[in-house]
Design goal:
- This protein has about 290 residues and is of the alpha/beta class.
- About 35% of the residues lie in helices and about 25% in strands.
- The protein folds into 2 domains: about 20-245, P-loop containing nucleotide triphosphate hydrolases (Rossmann fold, 3-Layer(aba) Sandwich), CATH 3.40.50; about 245-288.
- It has helices spanning about 5-15, 45-55, 70-75, 100-110, 130-150, 175-180, 250-260, 265-275, 275-285; strands at about 20-25, 25-30, 30-35, 60-65, 85-90, 115-120, 150-155, 185-190, 195-205, 215-225, 230-235.
- The strands form 2 sheets. It has a 9-stranded mixed β-sheet with strand order 5-4-6-7-3-8-9-10-11, sandwiched between helices.
- About 35% of the residues are buried.
- The mean pLDDT is about 85.
């Protein structure tokens, strides 16, 4: 442990280099970022688009793709030319890597990576329905990030029960650990219009949050003139105007989960939400 007077800490902090937003409101240099959303929402397309934009800024990118096959990749990008700083690593599906974390480290170092994308965390374990295992894997990835000074972006799914609901950290498996470890948590969800998604900052530690529930960013999924898929920004709106469905039980469950993760007791939660303690207990068991 390191001990200094509080004023010395602040004086030293004032000498630190300024915060660098590689992608404004989403990717901050040297941070650990979680990008989450339901299956099929377009996380990989969105992440690869961000990764290429970062590569064009002369950052060496290594994108660990455990989602798409080579053929699926070509279907999305039939004529796309990515920046030469963009390196993609694919999981060997015939001979699965026994220690993927070690492979991530070795490939990132061999390619002089500055920014790492892992798409997605479920590929690192067959048991990520258990939040504690998801959190443990996040912790190991974050340790690698800190040791080597990377910017780390990890993609993850959320359970189907949260489809069409407002975005929240609590919908992510291992949310309590993720909330501790991640610097920034960004959610992606479908809107009522099938060709659009919205993006929300659920946690943004180093800068003021701008893409909040009252001001989420909207993107349209389309193809360029050469048939390559991409997302195009098309304004902002309130999240409540965009969500595709509403479920009172799920929304209440999310509230309860967030309050539990914040350290509140069930008696305190029941008073805060105006419901019985037995209902808090019943709902909390259903979301474990």
């Amino acid at each position: 442990m390191i001990g200094k007077k509080m004023n010395d800490w602040l004086n030293d902090a004032r000498k630190l280099p300024p915060i660098v937003e590689i992608i404004p409101d989403m990717i901050i240099e040297n941070n650990f970022i979680i990008l989450f959303g339901s299956a099929g929402v377009g996380k990989t397309i969105f992440a690869m688009q961000m990764a290429n934009a970062i590569a064009e800024k002369n950052y060496r990118i290594v994108y660990f793709d455990f989602e798409l096959s080579e053929r699926q990749l070509l279907l999305r990008y039939p004529t796309k030319i990515f920046d030469s700083n963009f390196v993609r690593i694919e999981l060997d599906r015939e001979n699965p890597i026994e220690d993927i974390l070690l492979s991530i480290k070795e490939n990132a170092l061999a390619n002089n990576a500055r920014v790492i994308f892992v798409d997605n965390i479920a590929a690192l374990s067959l048991s990520l329905d258990k939040g504690n295992e998801a959190g443990a894997l996040m912790e190991k990835l974050n340790a690698l990030k800190r040791k080597y000074g990377w910017t780390l972006v990890v993609l993850t799914h959320i359970p189907k029960m949260y489809d069409g609901k407002t975005l929240s950290i609590s919908s992510v498996q291992g949310s309590a650990k993720i909330n501790q470890l991640a610097d920034d948590v960004i959610g992606i969800a479908k809107t009522k219009e099938s060709d659009k998604i919205y993006v929300k900052q659920c946690k943004f530690r180093c800068k003021e949050e701008k893409m909040t529930a009252d001001n989420v960013a909207i993107f349209r999924k389309e193809k360029d003139e050469n048939g390559n898929v991409l997302f195009t920004p098309c304004g902002y709106d309130k999240e409540k105007n965009l969500v595709t469905n509403s479920n009172n039980f799920t929304d209440l469950a999310l509230q309860i989960k967030e309050l539990i993760n914040s350290g509140m007791r069930q008696t305190q939660i029941s008073k805060k939400l105006g419901i019985s303690q037995s209902k808090v207990s019943r709902i909390s068991r259903s979301i474990d």
